[in-house]
Amino acid sequence: MAADVVIIGGGVVGAMCARYLAKTGRSVTLVEQGTMGSLCSKGNCGYVSPSHVLPLAEPGVLFKTLKSMTTPNSPFHIRPRFDLALLGWLTNFARKCNEKDMMAAGTALNAILRSSFDEYKKVIAEDYLDCEWQHEGILFVYRKASEFEAFCKTDDMLAEKFDRPARRIVGDDALIEFEPALKPGNTGAFLYDCDAHLRPDKLMEQMRASLVSQGVTLLEGTKVEEIVTEGSRFKAVKTSQGEIEAGHVVVAAGALSPLFQKALRCKIPVQPGKGLSITMKRPKICPKIPMIFHDHRVAITPFQTGYRIGSTMEFAGYDTTINPQRLSLLTEGAKLYLHDPVGEPEEEPWFGWRPMTYDSVPIIGPAPGVQGAWLATGHSMLGISLATSTGKLISEMINGEKPHIDPQPYAVTRF
Ligand SMILES: Cc1cc2nc3c(=O)[nH]c(=O)nc-3n(C[C@H](O)[C@H](O)[C@H](O)COP(=O)(O)OP(=O)(O)OC[C@H]3O[C@@H](n4cnc5c(N)ncnc54)[C@H](O)[C@@H]3O)c2cc1C
Q1: How far is the CA of 11 from the centre of ligand 1 (A)?
Q2: Measured on CA atoms in the order 361, 24, 237, 232, is the torsion positive or negative?
Q3: Does 279 sit in the ligand 1 pocket, CB within 6 Å?
Q4: 188 C-alpha to ligand 1 centroid (Å)
Q5: 252 within ligand 1 shell (Cβ under 6 A)
Q6: Which helix (H) or strand (E) element contains residue 91?
Q7: What number is the average pLDDT over the span 197-211?
Q8: Beta carbons within 8 Å of 84's beta carbon, 6+ residues apart
Q9: Nearest atom, ligand 1, residue 380 CA
Q10: How far does the centroid of ligand 1 lie from the alpha carbon of residue 168, in Å?
Q11: Pocket test for ligand 1, best of 16, 32, 40 (most atoms within 8 A of CB)
Q12: Calpha distance 337→326 (Å, rounded)
């Protein structure tokens, strides 16, 4: 079997790479070990959020991280174990917790968040994707006055440096008038009306059908076991179903991408950051827009056809279990803020491994040691938000076209 481009991974990132490449007339084969969109791109919160320009590594975060490591059932948790790759990742993360690196990552994220948002509107319209896209904003809700005041400074900075102003809603009366699903007891909130949301499982379902109709060859239930090179050039991938020769390979394997770093002769410092969600029917008093309950690190998304509570971040390696205590952090958190926090029945507990880079910036571009090999991974907490522009960039670079945004900040050579 042969193709112009073979893509490893059928999550939202691999799917968007396939989409943009196919539009330019390239023959594309997408290889997915499970079914398309069955890992991290399925049960996430579905925010397409240009407001999320700041990386995880901020000044002061290190202390909070260390504290949370020793607090049982903290939404942010590192399972203590000896893991050299994780130790290296955490050391580099610690180095990035300063103003200068935070702003550099913010600038890199801002450019791709903006263009991705615009691209979503085009892709959804051109490919007729019925994925419950709603451009209604996201509300960041703060309970403690101290946290609200601290975020006021961040919000000022976001407005000044990144042109991302929020509408402030202060006090219970104003908040409840704006969102009657909220209980009293909050200090205030920030409405980022630049943000939208969609239903990620539906997006992936629709993308699957759309890619097939655009002539992309989908090989599901097929695992890429090896990337084969000839000298310094990519030659083929060996899969559980045989070999596929191609001119180019794009590694879009999400949190599993580091498995290919030896073959690609470069470091791919991605760690799985496990998050959880529960999907259910819409509660009777359903919030009208998505909300993040900052003090408890819980996010909720009202879809047109359902409702999801998600969040938590656990560095526990490639662990596939769902700890009921950690899962209950989601519903317990939502109960503090909402009159009707859960819809019945609770349909689907889910976990996903976020492909976390320590600077929160994705890795997009060539693998410098292997001609014809490309990386589209490390999208951390923003893979849905960044997927369209990632696909566009990969397609432009493979086709030798002028990139629509400067790809330099996303290069793997920064590590
Ligand atoms: C609780 C939670 C909430 C989140 N909320 C949001 C949000 O609101 N907005 C947002 O932008 N992001 C959000 N994210 C992050 C987002 O889900 C991820 O960044 C994104 O899904 C990553 O997409 P991906 O395509 O890189 O990886 P994945 O979706 O994991 O896809 C990678 C695919 O590669 C396949 N694969 C791996 N190895 C191989 C191999 N050897 N051969 C064949 N196939 C292979 C896998 O099976 C998988 O399907 C959230 C994440 C979590 C956990």
Answers
A1: 5
A2: negative
A3: no
A4: 32
A5: yes
A6: helix 84-96
A7: 98
A8: none
A9: 19
A10: 32
A11: 40
A12: 18
Total residue length of the chain: 415
Q: Tell me which of 48, 259, 384, 410 to substitute to probe ligand 1's pocket, judged by most ligand atoms within 8 Å of the beta carbon.
A: 384
pLDDT single digits (tens) 280-292 = 999 999 999 999 9
pLDDT at residue number 29: 98
* Domains of the chain with bracketed CATH: 2-414 (3.50.50.60)
pLDDT at 143: 95
Q: What is the per-residue pLDDT across 308-360, written as a single tens digit (0 to 9) for each?
A: 999 989 999 999 999 999 999 999 999 999 999 999 877 789 999 999 999 99
Distance between CA 140 and CA 147 in Å, rounded? 11
Q: What is the pLDDT of residue 72?
A: 62
d(CA 29, CA 374): 15
Determine the residue of 120, 354, 388 to mutate for testing ligand 1's pocket, defined as the one with the most ligand atoms within 8 A of the Cβ atom. 354
pLDDT at 217 (0 to 100)? 98
Can you tell me the mean pLDDT for 177-197?
Answer: 97
Tell me the pairing of strands 363-366 and 373-377: antiparallel
Q: Give the pLDDT confidence of 5-40 residue by residue, as tens digits.
A: 999 999 999 999 999 999 999 999 999 999 999 999
The CA-based angle 34-39-41, given to 5 degrees, is: 125
Neighbours of 179 (CB within 10 A): 20
Rounded Cα–Cα distance for residues 109 and 52 (Å): 8
Phi and psi, residue 245, nearest 5°: -90, 145
pLDDT-derived band of residue 173, with 50, 70 and 90 as boundaries? very high
Tell me how far CA of residue 348 lies from CA of 53, 107, 167, 262, in angstroms: 30, 36, 34, 36
Is the torsion defined by CA of 25, 28, 34, 39 positive or negative? negative
Q: Is 16 exposed, middle or buried (0-12, 13-18, 19+ CB in 10 A)?
A: buried
- Could you tell me if 188 and 173 are in contact, meaning their C-beta atoms sit under 8 angstroms apart? no
Distances (CA, A) of 216 to 21, 23, 94, 207, 305: 9, 10, 42, 11, 29
Tokens representing residue 136 in the block: 């209604």
- Which tokens hold the place of 78? 């590192």
